[in-house]
Amino acid sequence: LRRLELLPAEEAAQAQAASAQPEQVRAVVDFLAGKGGHTSQALQSFIQNSDSQLYLHITVHEPMVQKHLESLQSSCGNGLEAGAVQRLTNLLLVEGLTDIQQKEHDILQVETTRGLPKAAKSIPLEKLFLPLSKVSIPPRISVTVGVAGIGKSTLVKLFVRSWAKGEINRDIVFVLPLTFRELNTYERLSAERLICSAFPHITEPGCTSAGAARTLLILDGLDEFKTPLDFSNAVVCTDPKKEIPVDNLITNIIRGNLLQEVSVWVTSRPAAARQIPSGLVDRMTEIRGFGAAEMKDFLDQMFLDNRDLSSQVLQHIRANRSLHVLCTIPGFCWISASSIAYFLKQSSDQSQEATVVPRTLSEIYSYYFKMALSGDCLEKPREPLRTEQAVNTSKKLVGSVGRLAFYGLLRKKHVFYEQDMKAFGVDLSLLHSSLSTRLLLKEDTQASTAYYFSHLTIQEFLAALYYYTSAKRAIFDLFAESGVSWPKLGFLSHFRSAVQRALQAEDGQLDIFIRFLSGLLSPQVTQLLAGWLLPKEEPGGWRSQAVGVLRGCLHAEHAVSSRAVNAMRCLHEMRHTDTAQAVEEAMRSGSLAGMLSPINCSALAYLLQVSDVCLEETNLSNCLTYDACKSLLSQLLFCHNLRLDNNQFKDDVMELLGSVLSVKDCQIQRLR
C-alpha cells in the first residue's frame, strides 16, 4: 500500500487496512473503488491475485507464512481417499455426550445404536469455526468426537490441507496441528515452547509475530494422551514462558489462562472427551459413520481392480447384521473386508481344505492375522513368507507384542515408545516386516518414535491371544502387573478372573477383549489358527466350562446391563447360540409370554440389537410383565419402532416408560 500513490482522502483507509479483518479489508477496497483511478485498480488486482493469503500478507511476514504452508502441505497433503473427503465434509452438531458415549466401549456404542447417527443438525466443515448466527461469536473451544477408526485424524488432515490451499476458513491466519502422541514425549512445556518446538519457523529471526491474527491450535487424539486431564486440581498458570507439566499446560490453554486469543480444536474418542468439562466447550461435533452408498463406494475403492470381489464382500457383510452395523466404522470395515476377501480367495482354491465362513468377530480377526502373518496382503502383494518362518514370527509376536497390548489395555495406553518396546522385550526387527503395515504402525515424531496399533480392536485381539496362551501355564493372576498375587492354577481359573474383571470395569474397556478371549475357545477359530497362533490340539473341556462361567453372569435379578448383553455376545463368539435361538424363535411365533427368565431377558436384549426380527419393528406385545419390562428398560431405549400393546401395564409401568422417553440416549420414534 505504501508504494501506491494514495489520494489524501484515502490515507485514513490505508491506516486501518494494516490491522483489519478480511471483511474490513474488502470494505476498504470497496471505498477506494468508488474513488476510481489507478489506486483502486491496483488494489482490486492485488485482492484477486493473492486469493486466500491476503490477510497473511497484510499481517505477518511472508517468508514465515510460506514456510508454514510448505510444512503443513508436506505433513497433511497426501493419503486422503475421495470417499473419506466426501463423508467428512459434514459433521453432526451435538449438544454433548450421551450416557452411552461416556460409559461404554466404542464398539458397544455402535452395536447398541445399530450404527445409526443421532437425530442432529449437520454443519459443513468450512463452517466449523464460524458463528452459527449473526449475533453469536466464533467458538474458542471446539471438540469433535468419534469412535476408534471413524476418521478423526483423517478429518484433521482434510481440514489442514483445505485451509492451506485457501479453500476454507480464510479468516484463520495460522493453523497449528499437534497430536497428543507428540505431546506424550514431553514432561514439562511452556506455551511458548509448545509452539516453538512444533513449528520452529514461526519464531525464526526476521519473522514477525502473528499478533492479533486469528490462530487455530489443533490437538488431535485426546484419548492417546498419557496423563488424564484434571481440571479440578490443575494449577493456574498465566505465564506463557513458564514450563509446567504438559497436562497442566493443556488444561490452562483450554480454560483460557494461556493463549487466550487462540481457538482450540480437540479431537477424541467419546469416553476420553468427558475429561473436558461441558461448560468449557463452545461447540461439540461428531463424525458419522458410513451410509449404505458410502460403504459400497469404500469397498469399490478398496478393490478397485476387482469389482466382482467388492460385490461379494459387500454381500457377505450385508448378510450378517452385526457385521454390517460395525462396518459403518471405516477402520473396522477395512479390516473386515480384507479378511472376507482373504476367505473368498482361500475358498476358491480347490486345493485348500474346507474353510470356515467368518461370522463372528474372532473369526474375522483370525483370518486377518493369518493373512498378515503369511504376508498374503491383497492390496499390496508381497512375496509370501515361508510357512515355518511365518509360524515362528507369529509366536514371537504373541509373546512380546501381545504382552505389550495386554498391559497397555489395562493401563488404557494405546501409544507406545521405544522405552516401552524395550521394557516388554519387543523385537523391533519384527516391525519392519509386512506386519508393520497391518498390525503395529510406526510414526516418527520430533522427540521420539511412536508405535500404535492400526485399530483399537487389533490391540484387543493381540491382548486376548497373549492372555489365552499365558493362562495355561501362569500360576499367578495375569492382571497383577507386579506378578505377585494369590496363586491361580488352570486356564478356567484365569478365564473366570478375566470375566469378573470385565464385568467390574465401569467403562467397558475389557468388553471386546473378553469377547475375543471367548472366541478363541470356539472350534472354528481353533481350526483357523491351529499351528499358527494356537497349539494344534486343544482340549475340548474348556469351552463347555467357559460357557457355564458366562451363563452364570446372566442369572442376576436386576436390570439387564450392557455387560450382560456383552456376555451373550461372548457366547455367540463361542458359537454357543442355543438360548438366543430359542428366544428368537419364540419372538417369531409370538410365544414369548411366560418364558422371560433373567437369562432369557439378557438373550432378548441381545436380539434387539442383532436379530432381523427386530429390524423394522420390535414387537413385544402380550409378553412382558412388570419385572421383565423394568429389567429391559435400558435396552428398549434404542428401539426405533416399539410395540408394547396388550401387556396389561399399570400406572407404575407407564411412569417407567415416561421416564425413558425423556432420557438423552432415547431413540424411540414410535411407541404403541
UniProtKB/TrEMBL annotation:
Residues 140-272 form the NACHT domain. PANTHER family: NACHT, LRR AND CARD DOMAINS-CONTAINING (PTHR24106). GO terms for cellular component: cytoplasm. It is found in: Cytoplasm. GO terms for molecular function: ATP binding. The keyword ATP-binding applies. It comes from Regulus satrapa. InterPro entries: LRR_dom_sf, NACHT-assoc, NACHT_NTPase, NLR, NLRP_HD2, NOD1/2_WH, P-loop_NTPase. It holds the Pfam family NACHT. It comes from the Eukaryota. Keywords: ATP-binding, Cytoplasm, Leucine-rich repeat, Nucleotide-binding, Repeat. This is NLRC3 protein. The keyword Isomerase does not apply.
